[in-house]
Amino acid sequence: MSFPKKSIQDPFKPWKFFVFPTITIKPTYSFPFLLKLIIALFAFASIFCPLFYFAFPSRADGYFSCSHCDKSLRIFGHQKITIGDDVSGTPNYEKTNLSHIVFGISSSVEKWNNRCHYNELWWRPNITRGFVWLDKKPLENESWPETSPPYRISADTSRFKYTCSYGSRSALRIARIVKETFELGMDNVRWFVMGDDDTVFFLKNLVMVLQKYDHNQMYYIGANSESVEQDVIHSYTMAYGGGGFAISYPLAAELVTILDGCIDRYASSYGSDQKVDGCMREIGVTLTKELGFHQIDIRGNPYGLLAAHPLAPLVSLHHLDYVESIFPGMDQIDSLKRLINAYQVDPGRTLQRSFCYDLNRNWSVSVSWGYTVQLYPSLVTAKELDTTLLTFQTWRTWKNEPFVFNTRPMSQDPCQKPVLFFLESVENVGENRSLTRYRRNIEKVECNGPEYAPLLATEFLNVSASTLNPKIWKMAPRRQCCDVINGGKGDFQVKIRSCNPFESVTPP
C-alpha cells in the first residue's frame, strides 16, 4: 500500500509573491536550502547596514547605540574626554574650558627672575596647567615662587644640528617643549599652548577662541608678525612663538613623532617656531590665524597698535620689555594690571572699538574699550578712524614701515590731532553692565584754535556698555556702535550698543 508523499511547505510563505516562487521542498533538500537562505540574509544585512548607517547617521546612532555603554572617548592612550548625547542622539562634547589646556612656557634660569612677573599676571596656581621649561636647575638657595608655574628641565639637545649663524642653539630646546610636554602623559588634554616667559595670556579669551574649534581635528592656531621685515625673513604663514600658539591634541600626537627629525632637517632655521612650522608643512596642516595673538614685533610706543585692535578677542601680548609703557606715567607691569582690571570686568570687549559722532559740536569719537578714547575736533570718516595711528616703528630697523596693516601718521597740524583719554577706572553697574572712566592725557598742546578749546575743557569721559556676549565671536564680525549721550561741561558720556539694522557710521 502506498502513501502520498508529504511535502514541506515554504516556511516563508507570506513572502512568496515578493521574493520566492511557489516551491515544494523535499525533506532531503530542506537543510541545504535553509543554509543558502541564511547565508543570503547575512550577505544582505552586511551590505544594507553600513549603507543605512552612512546614509542616515543620526538615525543609525539611535538604532545601533548602546544605552549603557561608557560615555568616554580615549585617544592616543592618555587623552580622555567625557561626552554625552543630546536629545537627537548626537554626541555632545563637554565645552572646552581652562582645564583642557596645558601650557608650555619657554625660559631659562638666567631670564626667569626678570620675566616671572609677566607670568604671574595671568597664571592661576592650582587652576592653570603646564610648566615653565628651563635650561638647567635653579640654584638650590633660590626658592621657586608659588605664584609662578611649576618648572621642568629640558632634555639635552647637543645631538641636534644647528647651523643658523645669527641664532642661538636654545631654539632647539624650545622647539622640543611641545614634545616634552606631550610625553608627560597628562590626562584630559585638548590643547597645548606654547608661549615665552614674557608672553601675557588673557585666559578667558583664549578659551573663548579655542571653543570655536573641534579639538579632535588637527589645528595649528596663532598669528604672524606685525612687521613685514620679520615675516619676509621668517614666514608669513607661521605662528610666531612669542605671541603664543595652540596645537590640538591629535596634531600634537603626530607632531611629536617627527619633531626631532624636523629639528635636524631645518637646522638652518633661526627660531624654534620656524622648526615647528616646518614639521606642520610636512604633516600638511596650515596655520589657522586668530588675530588676538600678538607678537608685538614693534619698537617705540605701542599705543596706535593697541588702540586699533582688530575685531577679535584679545588673547596675548608679547615683547612688552621692548616697547614703551602702554599707559603714560606708569611702569609696564602696573600698566598691564590696569588693562587686566578692565579685562576681568568684560573679557571679550577689551580693546574693542566703537565709533560715533557728536553732531552738536561736529566731534568724532573713537573708543577702544578698557584702554583709551580719542576725541577729534571734526567729523572724521570711519575709514580713517579705523586705520592704525603710527606711533611705533618696525622691529628690526626702527623704520615707519612696512607693516602687515595700513597705518596713518599723526597729523602735522596740531589742531587736527585727537585729544587722548586713558582708562582711569572700571566698575560693574547693574546686571551685566559696566562703566569705564577715562581721563584726558596731560600733554603740551600747541593748538590755540577756538574749535580745540572745548576738547581740552573735557577732563573726563565716561563709557557705559553691556557685557559682550561671547556668542558674538561665533557670528560674522561687526564692530559695535555708540551714541554720545550728552556733552555737558566737564564730563562726556558715551554709550556702546549693538548696531541697528542698516545703521552705519556715516558723517552728514
From TrEMBL:
Gene3D superfamilies (alphabetical): 3.90.550.50
Keywords annotated in UniProt: Membrane, Transmembrane, Transmembrane helix
Top-level taxon of origin: Eukaryota
Pfam family, one: DUF604
Chain segments annotated as transmembrane: 33-56
Protein name according to UniProt: Uncharacterized protein
Lineage of origin: Eukaryota, Viridiplantae, Streptophyta, Embryophyta, Tracheophyta
